[in-house]
């Protein structure tokens, strides 16, 4: 059962439930029932009794108005304190994480309201049409687990600070994993060594299909930053603000980790490829061997060979219509990145509505000014918890609204209705017209945001 705390308890994870077991034909692996009749959770059958590692404090207090994906609003902020019930020394579990610029957050959609989910859902971008739940990022899925790639702003003791998030306040978080482009992005897939015939020196350039000019912005950024050939294991962006560095304690950890990581990128790859990487000599051999093999295999290539043709894909060729381009041999992986991207169905990028223009009425402008100056006027600090300035608050409101946060239903049937949402301490009232959203009022959010875990709030209001 999924409870308000986000804990997925054993009864809902019973492996004999139709959802959990349909199609799984391993009768010998079914778990035994306890004398009381409960089904024993068993890792081997995939029955996981989860325990949130923490509860998110987020600038979004409710689902309404929360961005549908983290990329929509880069000023959206949150923090997560690892619970002491998980690790006695939570800070130990975060050691080294500050070396990464982005993290995956796995969480429970604890405010779904009910556990039922349908095989076909209506994602907003399909404007009422249906598609299979597993081809969407819908919160309503058999296991209500969400996955968000967030920017890691800083690590402080046992707490991480994030931006670019799409989760609401109180979201139970199950796990954090570092984002490693080399593993997590198809642009960076590394050919298994076996596929390169080293002995015969037949390292022919891989044929890759170019696709999709509209790459994920992070990837675009990586690509644009990659003017010089770079070692491919390193994806760290420098933190934007120096004050966002970890505390002194973490600096020590940082150095330790840095020592390990200084030699890590190539070592990591050679290790992954099963090559000895301890001695420089072996490493350079491995490097020599790997050079041409590091060309990536694109999904497009795979799809051409093995999969039935997709209906309609957002394959926007760069400099040609899906032509097949050889990637030059000896091209460092980052450079090869530029040659091809991942493929998604067109509807993912073809929003049913254009990006909306956002405007503020003079009244709303005054409200924003007023709200900003309510905090600590002497030090010029706004009364926001998460935003660092009124300007950031304005950008966040614009970002949320320009992506049109309304459901397809509301967009079609409730066109002249007011729309409300809360972000940080601002309660925003607006309405939507043809191609625009207009902010009418911005008031202080009256309700203090409730958090699920009985811990002190990490972000203090005003002071
Ligand atoms: C479409 S989901 C995508 C989440 C994640 N990026 C993913 O792909 O799994 C994002 C939406 O889930 C909703 N949401 C966020 N946190 C939630 C929570 N804890 N429980 C239920 N719904 C939540 C919000 O309405 C938000 O707009």
From TrEMBL:
It catalyses: N(6)-L-threonylcarbamoyladenosine(37) in tRNA + S-adenosyl-L-methionine = N(6)-methyl,N(6)-L-threonylcarbamoyladenosine(37) in tRNA + S-adenosyl-L-homocysteine + H(+). One of its GO terms (molecular function) is methyltransferase activity. InterPro entries: TrmO-like_N, UPF0066_cons_site, YaeB-like, YaeB-like_sf, YaeB_N_sf. PROSITE patterns: TSAA_1, TSAA_2. The keyword Transport does not apply. Residues 50-188 form the TsaA-like domain. This is tRNA (adenine(37)-N6)-methyltransferase. It comes from Myotis myotis. CDD domains: UPF0066. Coiled coil: none annotated. Keywords: Methyltransferase, S-adenosyl-L-methionine, Transferase, tRNA processing. Residues 196-336 are annotated as: Disordered. Belongs to the tRNA methyltransferase O family. PANTHER family: TRNA (ADENINE(37)-N6)-METHYLTRANSFERASE. One of its GO terms (biological process) is methylation. Residues 234-258 have a biased composition (Basic and acidic residues).
């Amino acid at each position: 059962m999924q409870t308000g705390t986000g804990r997925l308890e054993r009864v809902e994870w019973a492996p004999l439930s139709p959802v959990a077991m349909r199609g799984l034909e391993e009768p010998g692996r079914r778990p035994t029932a306890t004398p009381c009749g409960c089904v024993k959770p068993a890792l081997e059958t995939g029955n996981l009794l989860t325990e949130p590692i923490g509860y998110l404090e987020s600038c979004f207090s409710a689902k309404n108005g929360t961005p549908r994906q983290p990329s929509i609003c880069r000023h959206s902020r949150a923090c997560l304190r690892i619970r002491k019930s998980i690790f006695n020394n939570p800070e130990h579990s975060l050691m080294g994480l500050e070396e990464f610029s982005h993290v995956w957050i796995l969480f429970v959609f604890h405010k779904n309201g009910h556990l039922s989910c349908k095989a076909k859902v209506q994602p907003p971008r399909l404007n009422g049409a249906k598609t299979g739940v597993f081809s969407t990022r819908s919160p309503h899925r058999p296991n209500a687990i969400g996955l968000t790639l967030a920017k890691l702003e800083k690590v402080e003791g046992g707490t991480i600070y994030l931006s670019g998030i799409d989760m609401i306040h109180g979201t139970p978080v199950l796990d954090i994993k570092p984002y490693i482009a080399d593993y997590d992005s198809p642009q960076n897939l590394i050919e298994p060594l076996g596929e390169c015939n080293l002995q015969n020196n037949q390292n022919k350039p891989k044929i890759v299909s170019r696709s999709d000019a509209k790459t994920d912005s992070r990837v675009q950024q990586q690509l644009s930053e990659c003017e010089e050939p770079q070692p491919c294991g390193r994806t760290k962006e420098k933190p934007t603000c120096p004050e966002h560095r970890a505390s002194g304690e973490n600096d020590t950890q940082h150095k330790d980790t840095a020592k390990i990581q200084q030699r890590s990128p190539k070592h990591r790859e050679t290790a992954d490829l099963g090559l000895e990487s301890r001695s420089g000599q072996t490493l350079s051999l491995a490097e020599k061997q790997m050079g041409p093999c590091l060309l990536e295999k694109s999904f497009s290539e795979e799809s051409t060979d093995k999969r039935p043709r997709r209906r309609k894909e957002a394959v926007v060729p760069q400099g040609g219509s899906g032509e097949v381009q050889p990637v030059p041999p000896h091209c460092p992986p980052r450079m090869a990145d530029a040659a091809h991207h991942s493929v998604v169905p067109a509807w993912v990028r073809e929003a049913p509505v254009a990006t909306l223009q956002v405007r503020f009425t003079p009244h709303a402008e005054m409200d924003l000014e007023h709200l900003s100056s309510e905090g600590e006027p002497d030090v010029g600090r706004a009364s926001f918890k998460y935003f660092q300035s009124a300007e950031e608050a304005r950008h966040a409101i614009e970002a949320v609204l320009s992506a049109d946060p309304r459901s397809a239903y509301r967009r079609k049937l409730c066109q002249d209705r007011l729309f409300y949402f809360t972000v940080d301490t601002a309660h925003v009232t607006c309405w939507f017209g043809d191609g625009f959203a207009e902010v009418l009022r911005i008031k202080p959010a009256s309700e203090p945001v409730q958090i699920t875990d009985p811990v002190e709030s990490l972000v203090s209001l005003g002071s």
